[in-house]
Design a protein that fits this description.
This protein is an alpha/beta fold and 498 residues long. It has 3 domains: 132 residues, Aldehyde Oxidoreductase, domain 3; 254 residues, 3-Layer(aba) Sandwich (Rossmann fold), CATH 3.40.50.720; 95 residues, Oxidized Rhodanese, domain 1 (3-Layer(aba) Sandwich). The chain has 14 helices and 22 strands. Helix 7 links the parallel strand 11 and strand 12. The structure holds zinc ion.
Length: 498
């Protein structure tokens, strides 16, 4: 709830209305009219606001707070009109399980209201005329762009800042690659970042995903990234999209974008980025990492080979191990993500980096590197000149292959009883369904399923790939029960509900 009020805020009534026995902490904040500001004696204060815009933005802030923190209840009220000394100007209250999240949420909400809601403050002074004022401690420091970017303009030229400031970059994924990538682009003054990611932060992410902290576990990563980037670099506009990139929404999210940078962790998304960018003639940068080995490539319409020129067919998911399976060092993902940022800056400034014409491989263990020339391939499904890309139509299933033995989470509601089987390894099960049976893939014995004969078993792993492959194999075995794979796995569906 977010409200604006022209009359006194009844803080007692608001506090009493937030009794929730599920929460161990109630934290509130009261901002009051003080008797002096900047050395001048204040007589009274007046707030002006546009109620509709203010409430709309306030509700958006409340929604973001609920997504970022485990809040059981949240309310905020802002006064407007004339206020006397000592009166409450703004009140925020939250109920949470623990005090830490309560303090953080209160601070997030009040800071966001101050920064984003269209509210103006006019102070009347005891000894003089009134004046419209800001909050000195909340205002951005008076630092000019030349001061911030002086070191890079020496290398890139005096017009580089304006070019980067006008740039619009879409970053797909805010994980191990996406964190250093977004951080470096923001710090370099790239003016407009659009981030897309559907995951919630897990404890195992903290070792390499450097925009997040311990207190953030369980929150949507993309919202956390936006908040952190805006804290560090308030001159950058950051748009956060908590969604999974698909063939159905990609065109929309590409609107107004100059450059796409892939920081995803799966082949399907990498090929989706390639195919869509080739079709819509957008530049992109891609990178992948496997243990200590990383590689990076870039694409510009009309200037370079695409991913399908290098590898016409997508490798089946599961044919290589993921970071969860193979392990990875945070310093390596940070290095590769930073290199993506470097290539992005070059392309945004109109340069032609080596990654446009060569696929570059780096070994972060030995520091050996090599590159392979990337040539347009007559076997590319888009043709040698990529001219057929606009006419190339394919089903989403070809990117995210689905099968009749997959099931969506929504389709399981109220439709019979299911046996839920978690096939992830123990180290992956930071969260799970409380009623799921754990049968890890590494110790799989199909006969363990016979105890559930006559029922429908729904198998799930982290992303739905391993369970899909396992179910396909089980169907060939002909077990006396129905087995299905949960589409999207735990990360794509269940972790939002635990
Ligand atoms: Zn191609």
């Amino acid at each position: 709830m977010f409200q604006v009020s022209e009359t006194s805020i009844d803080t007692q009534a608001l506090s009493q209305g937030m009794v929730n026995h599920s929460g161990g902490a109630f934290v509130s904040f009261e901002g009051r009219v003080r008797k002096s500001n900047d050395g001048k004696a204040v007589a009274r204060l007046e707030y002006e606001l546009f109620p509709e815009f203010c409430i709309e933005e306030g509700l958006r802030i409340i929604d973001e707070a609920k997504a970022l923190f485990p809040l059981l209840e949240v309310k905020a009220v802002h006064r407007y009109g004339l206020l006397e000394l000592g009166e409450v100007a703004v009140w925020v209250g939250v109920v949470t399980g623990h005090r830490g999240a309560g303090f953080q949420a209160c601070r997030f909400i009040i800071d966001s209201i101050k920064a984003r809601c269209p509210i103006w403050k006019k102070e009347s002074y005891v000894d003089g005329p009134s004046d419209w004022v800001g909050c000195p401690s909340c205002e951005t420091k008076s630092v000019s762009a030349p001061q911030i970017f002086s070191r890079q303009t020496r290398l890139l030229g005096s017009d580089s800042h304006e070019k980067l400031k006008r740039a619009n970059v879409l970053i797909v994924g805010t994980g191990g690659l996406g964190c250093p990538l977004a951080l470096n682009l923001a710090a370099s003054g790239v003016g407009n970042l659009r981030l897309i990611d559907s995951d919630l932060l897990e404890a195992s992410n903290l070792q390499r995903q450097t925009l997040y902290g311990y207190q953030d576990i369980g929150s949507p990563k993309v919202l956390l990234a936006k908040r952190r980037l805006e804290e560090l670099h308030p001159y950058v506009s950051v748009e956060a999209i908590h969604d999974r990139l698909t063939i159905k929404n990609f065109d929309r999210y590409l609107s107004g974008i100059d450059l796409v940078v892939d920081a995803s962790d799966n082949f399907a998304t990498k090929y989706l980025i390639n195919d869509t960018c080739v079709r819509l003639e957008k530049a992109f940068i891609g990178a992948s990492i496997y243990q200590n080995q990383g590689h990076i490539l870039a694409y510009e319409p009309g200037a370079s080979a695409c991913l399908r020129c290098d590898r016409p067919m997508q490798s089946p998911e599961g044919c290589t191990e993921t970071c969860a399976d193979a392990g990875v060092l945070g310093a390596s993902t940070s290095a590769l993500g930073s290199l993506e940022a470097l290539e992005a800056i070059k392309i945004l400034l109109g340069q032609k980096p080596k990654s446009l014409s060569e696929q570059i491989y780096l070994d972060f263990d030995t520091f050996e590197n090599f590159s392979i020339p990337r040539l347009r391939n007559p076997d590319c499904p888009f043709g040698l000149d990529h001219k057929t890309a606009r006419d190339f139509v394919y089903e989403e299933e070809s990117l995210f292959p689905s099968t009749e033995f997959e099931v969506d989470w929504h389709d399981t509601h109220g439709k019979g009883s299911f046996v839920w089987i978690d096939i992830r390894e123990a180290s992956e099960r930071e969260q799970s369904l409380s009623h799921a049976i754990h049968l890890p893939l590494s110790q799989w014995r199909s006969e363990d399923l016979l105890a559930y004969e006559g029922k429908t078993a729904i198998l799930y792993c982290q992303s739905g790939i391993r369970s899909q492959k396992l179910v396909a194999a089980l169907l060939r075995e002909g077990l006396p029960l129905e087995v299905k794979s949960l589409r999207g796995g735990f990360a794509g569906t269940l972790n939002r509900r635990c």
